């Protein structure tokens, strides 16, 4: 239940931001990480950015998540 | 840990597994590491980490699944609230199928209750705005990771003066449960794998009492295969060298201090108070109640319900499973009566519940009968 996924900040609109998660975009709140900027990466839980992380680490996490999704698809 | 290709990753994993085996051999006695996060429980199985561990190293799951630790009393109350005709109950998907004393939210839905599942608590505000004539109750279940998102939502509702929105706060705090677990002495733990995303919010500091007061090392660990292996290796290293500190493996996200902004929201909207846990009963200052300034958003004050005395699921040993005192395989109902399709207790319903994880991954990786529980350390 404490899963959090990384996304890239595309646009900031007040206390909300548009983030990209490996292809899909979603609007989330940046109220808990208000100083995050466009182009930075954040991990998102329940529609809120919880913390920022650097690009390399975000890439690592996304690659691992994609692999897990592939596994899920196999699991059926 | 840096961005690297598959080969480099595999080499690193092999090196870590090797180190874990060498350290375990050097220790030469049974070692127990407890993880306190359902996401870790699942990740340890699905990435094959458990299967790669030495025989004298045992991983057990503690109170790491928020849905599982929610007692029947709270589930029953939420169901009663949902059954009120003017109420729309909003919650996260994990809660819907969890059985209370007599029924689940899913059963209440069949009886006509209006129950909506959301990904973010902010969506509950949209529902409130769209339904001004109804009472919107958000059932807030979760640890320190989730509570700030709900706190921020309450704050938003306050600034909009939304009159038809309230929260049933069933949030739980992890450190008090761990204190209770260690104090009971029921399960001997040599080291704790600490929850990475709980610590993202509160930092590693609130867990330092484990090392300072009880001499048990802890490692704040991430969720990828290499994180898990590295976390275990670093813990074994502490155990083998008789060190006990709370260290952070998941440094790319977690700091000692945590996210101050999220903590400020928690402090503003909530006050720590007694909470009742499945597996532990009432623990002081282990839950979050709405602070007096926000009491008009407290569903427990707004929606009056009476529930019959809660009853436990017959034969279900979730309480002991949550404390790490019992493996799911030791429950007589496991796999025979209790399955993810027909779950008896919450530990089988939640995808991150210990029983569900053992059901899904257990047989293939641990075909042998479980070893008897280890002696409690003095
Ligand atoms: S296997 Fe089912 S009945 Fe047994 S402890 Fe787990 S959830 Fe409860």
Which properties best describe this structure?
heterodimer, A: 76 residues, alpha+beta, SH3 type barrels, 1 helix, 5 strands, B: 378 residues, alpha/beta, Rossmann fold, five-stranded parallel β-sheet, four-stranded parallel β-sheet, 11 strands, globular, disordered C terminus, binds iron/sulfur cluster
Roughly what percent helix of chain B?
Answer: 40-55%
Evaluate the radius of gyration of chain A.
13 Å
Percent strand of chain B equals 15-25%
Number of separate structural domains of chain A = 1
Biggest interface pair, residues each?
A-B, 27 and 43 residues
Low-pLDDT residue spans of chain B: 364-378
CATH architecture of chain A: Roll
Please give the largest β-sheet of chain B.
5 strands, parallel
CATH class of the domain at 67-173 and 258-302 in chain B: Alpha Beta
DSSP helix fraction of chain A: 25-40%
Succession of helices and strands of chain A: EEEEEH
> How many whole angstroms does the radius of gyration of chain B measure?
21 Å
Q: What can you tell me about this protein's structure?
A:
- The complex is a heterodimer of chains A (76) and B (378).
- Chain A has 76 residues and is of the alpha+beta class.
- Chain A has a single domain (5-75), classed as SH3 type barrels.
- Chain A has one helix at residues 55-75, and strands at 5-13, 16-21, 24-29, 41-45, 48-53.
- Chain B is α/β, with parallel strands linked by helices and 378 residues long.
- Among the domains of chain B are: 67-173 and 258-302, HypD, alpha/beta domain 2 (Rossmann fold, 3-Layer(aba) Sandwich), CATH 3.40.50.11740; 318-365, no CATH class.
- Chain B is built from 17 helices and eleven strands.
- Chain B has a five-stranded parallel beta sheet with strand order 2-1-7-8-9. A four-stranded parallel beta sheet of chain B has the order 4-3-5-6, sandwiched between helices.
- Chain B is globular, with a radius of gyration of 21 Å.
- Chain A binds chain B through residues 1-4, 28-29, 31-34, 43, 45-48, 50-51, 53-54, 56-57, 59-61, 64, 68, 71, and chain B through 1-4, 37-39, 46, 65-67, 92, 94, 119-123, 141-143, 145-146, 148-149, 152, 195-198, 200-201, 224-225, 252-254, 259, 261-262, 265, 350, 352.
- The complex binds iron/sulfur cluster.
- Iron/sulfur cluster (SF4) is lined by residues 316-318, 321, 328, 331, 333-334, 338, 344-345, 347-348, 355 of chain B.
